[in-house]
Design goal:
Length: 243
């Protein structure tokens, strides 16, 4: 009799890199830094319509947090995001139970410093010239705006385009062209007291095909990551302009 447990893997995830988890697999990161907020990006990549149940452990004294990632065909699903702070824990692990059949997800860590290994992601600087740049799936933009007011613009012709902005201890989820029912249940999960504080994870929405957000640079880094599907990202773009 074949033992499927032999196929399970334990992955060192200290680089926060993009990896694939299947039934029985676990990835563990032990390098979270105090004062920094992290987003766990989870895409269902099983190419079928079976939901994937992912368990996230961030504390030995708290039960695992279960995140259900909706099944999708043709790699067309949205990302589910779990947020955790390095102030609450240095270690976080993500796993799929051994009896999960064909479940499969792609995951990575997002923050101002993660992932340190950007293999599998399109990682590039966002120029503050007001030009629109493509904002595709698996794209990570970064910038260190000067100490002045800047304007961020995200544009998408698709209904409910989702992306995430990171600062040191805060994340903003942008929803462009929001639907009447808003974000899906479980699409944004806050874990631990710090990530659950008011303002730690903010959600900004617009009911038109663009969203504008004014930010003030202070010499620290900003990061923007796509959290939508490949098909929904084909017409998405992002721009940063000095005011």
């Amino acid at each position: 009799m074949e033992s499927i447990g032999l196929l399970a893997t334990q992955t060192n995830w200290n680089g926060g890199q993009r990896i694939t988890l299947k039934s029985g697999d676990t990835a563990t990161c032990t390098t979270l830094s105090p004062g920094q907020l992290y987003g766990i990006f989870i895409y269902n990549s099983a190419q079928n319509d079976t939901n994937a149940k992912v368990n996230v452990v961030w504390s030995n004294s708290q039960p695992p947090c279960a995140i259900t990632v909706p099944g999708t065909t043709a790699n067309a699903g949205l990302s589910s995001m779990g947020f955790v702070s390095g102030t609450d824990t240095q270690t976080v692990s993500v796993s799929i139970a051994p009896n999960s059949g064909l479940s499969q997800v792609d995951i990575w860590l997002g923050s101002v410093s993660m992932p340190t290994s950007t293999s599998g992601l399109n990682n590039q600087p966002l120029q503050a010239n007001g030009e629109l740049y493509q904002f595709n799936k698996y794209t990570r933009y970064y910038a260190v705006p000067p100490s002045k007011w800047m304007s961020l613009t995200i544009v998408s012709k698709i209904t409910q385009f989702i992306s995430c902005q990171f600062r040191q201890s805060q994340a903003t989820v942008f929803v462009v062209n929001e639907t009447s029912h808003g974000l899906l249940d479980g699409q944004v999960t806050k874990m631990g007291p710090t990530a659950s504080e008011k303002g730690a994870v903010d959600i900004k929405t617009s009911d038109i095909q663009s969203i504008n957000y004014n930010l003030q640079g202070d010499g620290t880094q900003y990061v923007w990551m796509d959290a939508d599907s490949q098909q929904d990202s084909q017409s998405a773009s992002i721009a940063l302009q000095s005011l």
